[in-house]
Model the fold of this input.
Amino acid sequence: MELRHVDPKTLRENPENPRTSAPDPSADRMMALNMQVVGVLQPPIVREDADGGLTVLWGSRRARCAVMAKLKQIPVLVKAADDTLDGLAAGSENVIRQAMSRPDEWRWVERLRREKKLTDKQIAKALMRTPAYIKGLSHLARLHPPMLHAIEIGRGPDDGEEQIIAMAPLAEQRAIWAELFAESAEEGQDPADYLLQANDPDDTVPWRHVALQLKQTRFYARDARFDSSVANAYGIGWEDDLFTPAGEDGRYTTDSTAFEAAQRHWLAQGLPAGGIVMAENQYGSAATPDGYRRLGHWIEPTEDEVVGYFLDPHSLAIEEYRLGPDATRVGASVRVPGMVDAGAVQETPKGRADISGTGEKLIGEIRTQALHQALDVARETADPWDLVAALLLAFTGGNVSVQGDPTGGYRKTSARKAAVTALFPEGLLVREPDLLRGHAIAVLKSVANCDVSLHSGSGISAQLLGVLFDADAQMPNMAFEAFLKTFSKPGITKAIEAEGLAAQSTGKQMRAALIAHVGETRWLPPAAGFAQAVDAWKEALADDASAAAMRASDDDEEDAGDEDCEDAAEALPNAAGPETAAETGEQDDQPMAGVAAHFRDQMAQEPEARAHFDSHVEFLRVA
Done:
């Protein structure tokens, strides 16, 4: 072959080019820009025609992109024409070409950085890639070497799984690899260093399992409402997610405790004027505050609406909800814990609750112990009717069907099963009072608990059991350091002032003063006892009754609306019947306008409801 330097514009297209589909303009632009940086790395192969012109045999895209790059000259290799082999070579040159593997790309980038001192920006320009892609290749440096080998032989994870694995410490990657291939490694070989067998297609990796085992929950800066000063105050150090698309904030932290504390700080100190903090309901979603209703996106903004802010317990992102006054509950008191009205936010910043979540959980555990002790005391003397009522009450708890039963489980007989087996051996009740009492108490203890848990806690029904069996008498002295440390400073101040003690400058001093004051006697904060459950129960029953009454009222209104619609249809004027319309060829729309106006008046009285009705309902005459 002869090497020549020619103007790419003079090269002729190969009439037998195996590539007949339209080229990708964006890919051609990338190659042209690459040529402007590094030139033509592989000269096209050409043949000399009878008139002295040059026709490209293979390398047409390189020649075309050289013209786009406005190169004046490029190298070409001139070979003798061979009608038999030229077509075969042109096609096979495209088919057998193989791109570099990602580990090879990473090693190449590392070598350019180390030996040529090139920057990521220079390398990215040559590859026509973003700097983020180059940084993403560096993530491969954080993969366990046998995982890199799996990627090289084409058995690697997908992009999402690779991202999760690369974020995990190498020690954890090594440990899970050793666990996966403990039986595959040869004798004497460390299973953590096992390499997949390239000639065995069944030797694969359950990458999804690996990713799930190594996944760390991330909390992104783009979901944070707090600023950098608050982040620093709570010790949040951001890391960069190199796989984040360009233009998005990819900073994140895995410190959920610090992120949540900073978000709550913003809710307490940075809430916009008029904002409302929304509490979490029993299902982990936002609870609509009393006196308010949620506004749909179709409702036009009003002057009296406010914004509710809710901290999602899973993502820790703060969600926003439109809230408006609830006309059906005007004057209702706001009783949702953690909710702040607009005036309260403006006058005094929201502080910590008197008792933290840790304290509430500790209260629940101690309550459960006291309740069970009270049931034990009643074991010999409990009135059967009390036990029947208690059982019925227990099985209305929030933890039935029964989750959290310590007596049940795989190959274990639960207390409920043991009770029915002993009490109904032949299908008929064995009427022995002692046996009844003993099994009833055992079932009650297996079901009822005061744990603060969405899935296994019994809720208020267990607290009412405590009232029924006087569990307050079994509550211990709660003036001990581990519990008192869960109080906020305002909370511990209220506690010692209720005992007639003077407030101190620090929470530690007040805790010590309260413990010393109580001594060997018993101290129990009102929020920890069982007695307050009675008022809460009454309030819940009243709310249920109110809701039932409202549903019944709605049903009556719907029935009345149906009757009004029928009366209205009969009363509508019949301005033009079908025969008249057929004769004149015209359709009188006046009756339909009357139908629309009637239904609009019946179904939508408020301005916002009328607007919604008009935008969503259309009356059409069917021929």
